[in-house]
Amino acid sequence: MGQYGTRDVQHYPWRKETPPRRRAFYYSDYSDDGRKVYFDGLGGIVPAQWPCCSGTLPQVAADYRVCTYFHDSEGVYVNLFIPSTLRWRQGEVAVSLAQSGSYPLGDSVTLVITTPRAKEFSVRLRIPQWAESQTLYINGTRLTTSPIPGTFALLKREWRSGDRIDLQLPRKIKLEPIEPTHPDTVAVTYGPLVLFCLASDTPRVTRQELFQATRQGLDCDKWLVNTPSGPVQLAPFWASVGASVPYQTERGYRTADPRSPKMVLIGRAPREC
């Protein structure tokens, strides 16, 4: 639930970002020669700004409140890492927890507790399945036990107002199979993010070249892959507004059938870092 929810939040809603002329993102074409498609009103028959299936976006946004935190008699569960503030009653005490940080582009998640008086309860943080070398700090002191990926790290203590929890989630480039029956068709991932190629045509890129992708700055949402035929840029889906987005396979990004249309940039170009 947490892993799926994170990738849903980071890709599905954000990829609906409206391009120029206020057209709505319509659907993702995952074929070899696919590209991002924007609704045109069925050729102008109906208004182009609001296709029927885009109505699910408000429903997804409403689910943020449902899926980000959970609560039981012992305390709270932090399921998704989204800048937000949670308020609840732990017994007779009103408590709030404010979440911030650089995630998902950065490695840090910070939670600060506010309470009118000291109160013992549990805070459980979901540790992503992809995490490696993750660390937890309470008020600047590193915990001696390392949280286990794919589980909730339990922090139970008497909390006071101003107590701070810091979670560090270092990550690196990985290649993940799209499905078990096709292990050589893979996605390029960076923690919770799936990275897409921004190109006017489908480039050939090897696994080794992808593993050596370099990020173009600490706060940048672009990665650069050097290939014999020239540099290839990768980015999360939200940063590929108006761009074609080929998918990577074992032999590199598949080349479209020469009989099919070329993959071309549409709309505005991605911003430069």
Account of the protein in words:
The chain has 273 residues and is mainly beta. The protein folds into 2 domains: 138 residues, no CATH class; 96 residues, Immunoglobulin-like (Sandwich). The protein is 12% helix and 38% strand. The protein is built from 4 helices and 20 strands. Strands 5-6-7-12-9-10 form a 6-stranded antiparallel beta sheet, with no helix packed on it. The chain has a 6-stranded antiparallel beta sheet with strand order 13-14-15-18-17-16. A hairpin with a 2-residue loop joins strand 17 and strand 18. The longest helix has 13 residues. The chain is globular, with a radius of gyration of 21 Å. The relative contact order is 0.15. The C terminus is likely disordered.
Shape: globular
Helices and strands: which structural class? Answer: mainly beta
Cα-atom radius of gyration = 21 Å
| pLDDT < 50 runs, ≥5 residues | 15-20, 242-273
Instruction: Note the total helix count.
Output: 4
Tell me how many strands there are.
Answer: 20
- Beta-strand content: 35-45%
N-to-C series of helices and strands: HEEHHEEEEEEEEEEEEEHEEEEE
Distance between the termini: 33 Å
Q: How many domain modules?
A: 2
Helix content: 10-25%
* Widest sheet: strand ordering: 5-6-7-12-9-10
Largest sheet: 6 strands, antiparallel
